[in-house]
Amino acid sequence: MELKGKKVGIALTGSFCTFDKIFVELEKLVETGAEVYTIFSNASQQISSRFGTPDEFLQKAEEITGRKPILTIEDAEPIGPKSYLDVLVIFPCTGNTCAKLANGITDTPVLMAAKAHLRNNKPLVISISTNDALGMNMKNIGLLLNAKNIYFVPFGQDNPVKKANSLIAHTGKLIPTLEQALEGKQYQPILESF
Fold first, then answer.
1. 54 CB contacts (<8 Å, ≥6 apart)?
2. Strands 150-152 and 124-130
3. Alpha carbons 124 and 110: distance in angstroms, whole number
4. How far is CA 131 from CA 123, 135, 169, 191, in A?
5. Given this model, what pLDDT does residue 16 score?
6. Which end of the chain is more exposed for a tag (fewer CB within 10 A), N or C?
């Protein structure tokens, strides 16, 4: 299913090392003709890192999409009753966000957006980025892999020697993953090496 005219939510969490790649894919997504709405987690709005500042990230998202990002739980909640997104992706999805999502916790704008979106039986896509995916977070990833209406951007071990438990999504597979999710299908193969 093509993305032109589709309303796509992009929910950013605090895996700042992936943000350069995220913004490249955000531009590609806008080029498809999709209407893109960004949602920022509390961490992505508040933490400055060697990868940039929150102000830089928020400004870049608005420049690319032409829309102000959603920044509060209150502003994310209407995604449910208004049902205005066709698909939502948590891009990137940290281990912390993954754990909270798997356990029904909605204490950030991103998690509220996910909960609100899922209530409409629409696809939620996860683009995993966590150093503990093959450790403490494996059970949460397993729960989400088995959940209705949740799909994953293909992922793999980004550095199995130095970070044996780390998994990261192949961000370049975002668009085909979204297209498949809109048809109720998981993009395959889901596990791919780097």
1. 40, 44, 45, 46, 47, 48
2. parallel
3. 12
4. 25, 8, 12, 16
5. 86
6. C
Average pLDDT score over residue span 28-54 = 94
Q: Residue 88: which pLDDT band, with cuts at 50, 70 and 90?
A: very high
Give me the sign of the Cα torsion angle 43, 110, 60, 176: positive
pLDDT at 54 over 90: no
With cut-offs at 50, 70 and 90, classify the pLDDT of residue 17: confident
pLDDT at 194: 86
Q: Are 62 and 68 in contact (CB under 8 A)?
A: yes
- Per the prediction, the chain carries an average pLDDT of 96
How far, CA to CA in Å, does 99 sit from each of 25, 93, 96, 110, 133? 25, 10, 5, 13, 10
Q: Mean of the pLDDT values across residues 15-27?
A: 93
Structural element, H or E, at residue 180: helix 174-181
Three-state SS at 194: coil
Its sign, for the CA torsion 45, 52, 30, 8, is negative
For residue 2, the tally of other CB atoms under 10 A from its CB is 11
Q: What is the 3-state secondary structure (H, E, C) of 122-154?
A: CCEEEEEEECCCCCCCHHHHHHHHCCCCEEECC
